[in-house]
Amino acid sequence: MKQRLVILGAGESGTGAALLGQARGYDVFVSDANKISEKYKAELEQAGVIYEEGGHTADYILDARIIIKSPGISPETEIIQQAMAREIEIIDELEFAFRFTSAKIIAITGTNGKTTTTLLTYHLMKETGFDVGLAGNVGKSLARQLLDGEKDYYVVEISSFQLDGTRTFRPYISMLLNITPDHMDRYQYSLKNYVNSKLRIIQNQTEEDHFIYNAEDPILTEELVTRGLFKPLGHGFSIDGSKAAEMYYRKGKMYFFGFWIAQKDTPLRGLHNAQNIMAAVEALRILGADADQVKKALKTFTNAPHRLEYVATINDVKFFNDSKATNVDSVKYALDAFDEPLVWIAGGIDKGNDYKLIMEQVNKKVKALVCLGTNNLRLRDAFHDQIVDIMETRTMQDAVRGAMGYARANDVVLLSPACASFDLFRNYEDRGNQFRETVLALKEEFEKNQQMQ
């Protein structure tokens, strides 16, 4: 008799898990509390997978041998609590897929920088000749990719929510870039719980595996390094070079065993991206990649949209899209990346931000603040003593034009909101896309006016 496999949530990961489960002989049932997209619905129907949408039928779900839960579904959800009471195994799609692959996994987590480092590691591996796939929070789900023929390696971005659903998941190389408080509502407002979640990335690693970590992260070193809690071979990276680290940054250059890389020769700005580069390059060094090929590949990397993405230059003013920066810590990284005077576009749904964390940088670098949101009171109150020029806007067009009005030659206009986007936009991608489109339209308008003069 087939084992019952229930998938809760029919997004990319859920649909991929359903298709893999069907192919591996499970009795698969998919349940989504919301409407399933037509794309995924068509895939499920073509594979003959039974599904429901708009709610959960407990009788079908609680008959499962295994439940694969979407990372976004809280463990406190009633159907999950009922399944836990029956001791049904509840796992993540990455855990499920891992059970069907012999590929080596390079898994990357951290509060910030995951996506950039994942994409960079994948790019470097692909460009230097590795048979590699991209999975997790970027690219196709790992489960789906296993149906198309297995790669030798997979680079996987993995969040704390996904790590919570792992049991046997064992990366060959794991990376923990940093830990700062995030998603506290999901972790009972306990930093310890959040840290423990992140550390699950090394729980099954052995002495044959590798762990790349930030040797300067105070939370990480307190919880992990000083207590010697990890089995894999550790590889630390450091910006100031004062810590015990294999990789360090000095005067714009990143030093590794046997070679160095100047950050100006890469497309990534800021000290936070120097850390991301060091982590990615160290993975390539562990895998035995040629240093010259790695340096060459670094120059051709293109980061994901909305992460310090250069958009355009208008009248000697550069515009950067950092819409993904939805917390103060991310904005801190963005502000660090620039030496030029900044016109800062920020605002949206405040998540209890502590703006004191960036007060010093704002004082030094920001000449004007353009607030973009329906309620910017906390943002204005935080900086009204530091910034003379503050503008209120509720549309992207007004925000971009207002920022351009404050900017002068060689300034930078930076969209780095520090807030969620749902008051005015569908999500951070929509916010970033509207910023890019508005800037490019303004550039076209400016160039037409120049031609007419």
TrEMBL record:
Membrane spanning residue stretches: none
Keywords: ATP-binding, Cell cycle, Cell division, Cell shape, Cell wall biogenesis/degradation, Cytoplasm, Ligase, Nucleotide-binding, Peptidoglycan synthesis
Cellular localization per UniProt: Cytoplasm
Protein name: UDP-N-acetylmuramoylalanine--D-glutamate ligase
Family in the record: Belongs to the MurCDEF family.
Catalyzed reaction equations: UDP-N-acetyl-alpha-D-muramoyl-L-alanine + D-glutamate + ATP = UDP-N-acetyl-alpha-D-muramoyl-L-alanyl-D-glutamate + ADP + phosphate + H(+)
Enzymatic class: ligase
Function comment: Cell wall formation. Catalyzes the addition of glutamate to the nucleotide precursor UDP-N-acetylmuramoyl-L-alanine (UMA).
Gene Ontology cellular component annotations, sorted alphabetically: cytoplasm
Residues that hold ATP according to the record: 110-116
Coiled-coil stretches noted in the UniProt entry, renumbered to this chain: none
Provenance organism: Fulvivirga sedimenti
Chief place where the protein resides: cytoplasm
EC number, UniProt record: 6.3.2.9
